[in-house]
Amino acid sequence: MSEEQYEVLSNLKNMIGNAFPNMSFLISHTKIKGELISNTSIRMWRPISHNKMEVIAWMLVEKNASQEWKNQSRDSFILKFSPSGIFEQDDTEVFTDITEAAQGPMPFQKNLTYNYTMGLHREPVDFIGPGVAYDDKFTEASQRNFYQYWLELMTK
After folding, report:
1. Tally of CB atoms within 10 A around 146
2. pLDDT level of residue 61 (50, 70, 90 thresholds)
3. Beta strands 52-60 and 15-19, pairing class
4. Which residues 6+ apart lie within 8 Å of 77 measured at CB?
5. Where on the phi/psi map is residue 129: left (φ > 0), alpha (ψ -120 to 50), or beta?
């Protein structure tokens, strides 16, 4: 990692990304005992059937970090983005409800269509890469790019 890339990472509160086709990552931080402690996780999203998904999550920490930092990073991960974390529990509930609702008659009765327009007006920012970055985490650019690439692969 270059010094410039490290500088960008050191100033981020959250960084969310995807690696095609089924891996995502999250770098975040939490105040633990008055100190900002980072946590990094990667997830593999594995479809099981048309309505089931297995998600395997790993928490990463620097190999040479002190044991205290490793423990605090684990606590940060567990508090926020683990299956028992305050954010992941909400997401899991929503994923379950969306899957259930999408299988019923309501989407057809109400002629619902998918809407991936959040952040559509945003342009990528200069980024020392690799990848493409936006200045706001509230965008569906990753999803649009994912499905665009998937469509290209499926129609070759």
Report:
1. 16
2. very high
3. unpaired
4. 39, 41, 59, 85
5. left
pLDDT band at 152 (very low <50, low <70, confident <90, very high): very high
Chain position carrying tokens 């770098």? 27
- The Cα–Cα gap between 63 and 43 comes to 19
Higher pLDDT, 151 or 7: 151
d(CA 81, CA 104): 30
Residues in the chain: 156
pLDDT of residue 67: 95
Q: Which two tokens stand for residue 9?
A: 């990472």
Rounded Cα gap, residues 83 and 113, in angstroms: 29
| Residue 52 pLDDT exceeds 80 | yes
